Amino acid sequence: MKAVILVGGEGTRLRPLTYTTVKAMVPVLNKPFIEYIIRYLSNHNIKEIILALGYKPDCITDYFGDASQLGTNLVYSVETEPLGTAGAIKYAEQYIDDTFFIMNGDIFTDLNLTDMLQFHRDKGAKVTIALTPVEDPTRFGVVETDSNQRVTRFIEKPKREQVTSNMINAGVYIVERQVLRRIPKGKRFMFERDVFPELLAEGEPVFSYATDAYWIDAGTPEQYLQLNSDLMFGKSLQVAFKPEEVRINKEASVHPQAKLTGPILVDSHCTIGKDVQLKGPVVIGTGCTIKDDAIIENSILWQNVTMGEKATLKDCIVASNSYIVNNACIECATIAQTEK
């Protein structure tokens, strides 16, 4: 079984974080986001993963190589221009030889792919779309189904008065290879607006697989911060972290008078000064310096961040190589370079 991960976009919703780091490589608990997706797919016996790349592909290819260390084989399909979700799959068609999975590159989920595949086969579906419940469906694509879980209608980002269900497209699909014939080569084409509605109009079997497993679209700074928090509080099966845990790398230095309240993750070559307060969830990447009397609460620091004395961060994301001046007090901010 193979899977395609769609990671070709510029990650505009995650700006300014993605001006210098591609979306797929944004760190989650100090590992690249896409590494979790690769391991997740590998754990469901998916042995070849095709990465549909576009924007800054070298950032990913240089880091992972063939990814054999992750229990799978990576193949890179690099677009020369943005082709949309379906166009990107068509571009990678040469690597696809049978039924395959598609996964949006900003989704983190515990969805049971093995069970979903069995469902797809039992239904004789051409396409199976994973659905997940959300509180506000207007930000997503709502999917209507009948009593047999067959899809009857798509409503892309509906207005509130158009909402008929809280079940949305979860960004995970199983597709039969023959569906690729419907996608024009070299043209921008979308599954959500072009391929799926066309299949429905022609009466083809498109089914929904509903799940209440952990799911989050981590494509905005707010949701990215939420994902890190969720993982530290044990909401996903993929990460073993306890709410009270304080995990300090052995190559980090923490002053004995620093006050640490979990969950906390501190990577290598960090220095945590005297009377620093870390109030979890807090994630600190490699090479950071937190000077005396600083306070960090519910925040993520990437690599090589320096935080001045008596500075305070709350509900913040701080990208690599940033400097927080002495006595600064910053809340609910995303701090990064604002130019490409």
Structure notes:
With 340 residues, the protein is of the alpha/beta class. The protein is 18% helix and 32% strand. Strands 14, 16, 17, 19, 21, 23, 24, 26 and 27 form a nine-stranded parallel sheet that branches. Strands 5-4-1-6-11-8-12 form a seven-stranded mixed sheet, sandwiched between helices. Helix 2 (58-64) links the parallel strand 4 and strand 5. The radius of gyration is 21 Å and the shape is elongated. It starts with a strand and ends in a 5-residue tail after the last strand. 41% of the residues are buried.
In a nutshell, what does this entry contain?
The chain has 340 residues and is of the alpha/beta class.
How many helices?
Answer: 6
Mean pLDDT figure: 90
| Helix content bin | 10-25%
CATH topology of the largest domain: Spore Coat Polysaccharide Biosynthesis Protein SpsA, Chain A
